[in-house]
Write a structure and sequence with these properties.
Layout lengths: L1 E10 L2 E11 L4 E5 L6 H9 L6 E6 L2 E2 L5 H7 L1 E4 L11 H8 L8 H11 L1 H5 L10 H13 L5 E5 L7 H16 L3 E5 L3 H7 L2 E6 L2 E7 H5 L2 H7 L4
Parallel strand pairs: 3-8, 3-9, 6-7, 7-8
Antiparallel strand pairs: 1-2, 1-4, 4-5, 9-10
The structure holds adenosine-5'-triphosphate.
């Protein structure tokens, strides 16, 4: 589905992605892990088109998308749900979801909103309230829900568990598993590497702008080097 080859990206003269290659196959959840500053967010932003690249190629279903605007990439089915609380605070939950569907002209918007509400019931309860009044976890759910309203084929998730309590982290992870079951492919960036690999099919370890390791999630989970560097003591 997604093939990234030899991707480079820089902030001014500082190169942050130094030749990243990876692939995501249809139906997979792929975890991207790595330390702070490794370039994970930059990579997702390059895939969604908001971060310029200085070299390499991004192919989606075989077609190059690296010169398309973010908007055109969303139309093709590549959608990023941003890190943190980037929902539209003054707007209601419902209006935030509606904005996620702004490019669609099909008749399934209502039923997709119902699916989001089924996945995150608290959003249904609070549909008429302003997004800015939601808790951090609820805003994260709303950010994912908004991305889903664009009918993505590939969902790019940046740190969906950031700042959430363990119960909410579990809820978000369960939602990602449900997304996969509903046919959405996911590329997941997570600080919480163990949790990410536990729900992923495969993983990539990004180290200072390069892929240092890759494999089946279960293999990475038991890899001593990965364990020592990213999975904490256990
Ligand atoms: P984190 O988990 O901390 O978000 P990350 O792996 O997502 O880390 P990036 O946010 O992609 O890493 O950052 C990679 C490097 O690029 C870091 O050294 C960071 O300081 C630098 N960087 C990120 N954004 C900018 C920016 N807008 N301008 C300049 N440098 C930046």
């Amino acid at each position: 589905m997604l093939e990234v080859s030899n991707l480079h990206s820089a902030y001014g003269r500082i190169e942050v992605l130094k030749g990243v290659s990876l692939e995501v196959r249809t139906g997979e959840v792929v975890a991207l892990i790595g330390s702070n500053g490794a370039g994970k967010t930059t990579l997702l932003r390059a895939l969604s088109g908001v971060q310029p690249i200085t070299g390499g190629e991004i192919r989606f279903f075989g077609t190059r998308i690296d010169r398309l605007s973010p908007h055109r990439r969303v139309e093709r089915g590549v959608t990023q749900s941003p890190e943190g609380r980037q929902v539209f605070g003054p707007l209601s939950v419902e209006d935030n979801l509606r904005l996620g569907a702004y490019m669609r002209r099909d008749g399934e918007i209502e039923s997709d909103r119902e699916r989001v509400f089924a996945m995150f019931p608290v959003l249904r309860e609070k549909r008429h309230l302003v997004a800015g009044g939601l808790s951090g976890g609820q805003q994260q759910m709303l950010a994912i829900g908004r991305a889903l309203m664009g009918k993505p084929k590939l969902l790019l998730l940046d740190e969906p568990s950031l700042g959430l309590s363990p119960i909410l982290v579990d809820q978000i992870l369960a939602a990602i598993v449900a997304l996969k079951a509903s046919g959405i492919t996911v590329l997941l960036v997570e600080q919480n590497a163990t949790a990410a690999l536990e729900i992923a099919d495969r993983g990539y370890v990004l180290e200072t702008g390069r892929i240092a390791s890759t494999g089946a999630a279960s293999v990475l989970l038991s890899d001593p080097k990965v364990k020592a560097a990213y999975l904490g003591a256990d």
